Amino acid sequence: MVKHIVMWRLLDSAAGASKKENAIKLKAKLEALQEEIPELQFAEAGINFCQADAAFDVVLYSEFQDKEALATYQAHPAHQRLISEFLDKVRSEKVVVDYEI
């Protein structure tokens, strides 16, 4: 099994919405990918409430059968559309960790 974890810092305002509004939209969009991408076995997105300077705003925890399934997910048109049409417009920073268990 492969676990894929991504965290984003969002811009204070972007795409006509506040950081909080965009965090809520991003969470919904990320979790909706489960309906469109069969390789995505599980996805959970969370919105941060911690006010520490080191904190990121949104996190995605997701699971895949193997590295090939993760690669298929990453190349999937629905995933690419989310990035180009929304994420690239609202994020300021991103970090990612992928690992196998």
Describe the structure.
There is one protein chain. With 101 residues, this protein is α+β, with helices and mostly antiparallel strands. The protein has one domain: Alpha-Beta Plaits, CATH 3.30.70. It is 41% helix and 36% strand. It is built from three helices and six strands, in the order βββαββααβ. A four-stranded antiparallel β-sheet has the order 4-5-1-6. Strands 2-3 form a two-stranded antiparallel ribbon. The longest helix has 18 residues. The N and C termini lie close together (6 Å). The model has no long low-confidence stretch (mean pLDDT 98).
Strand order of the largest sheet: 4-5-1-6
Oligomer: single chain
Looking at the structure, the CATH topology is Alpha-Beta Plaits
Q: Summarize the helix and strand pattern as letters.
A: EEEHEEHHE
CATH architecture: 2-Layer Sandwich
Q: What CATH first level would be assigned?
A: Alpha Beta
Strand content: 35-45%
- How many strand units? 6
Low-confidence stretches: none
Q: What is the average of the pLDDT values? A: 98
- Write down the Rg: 13 Å
Structure classification: alpha+beta
Question: Which percent range fits the helix content?
Answer: 40-55%
**Helical element count?**
3
Looking at the structure, what is the overall shape? globular
In whole angstroms, how far apart are the ends? 6 Å
What number of structural domains do the residues give? 1
How would you characterize the largest beta sheet? 4 strands, antiparallel
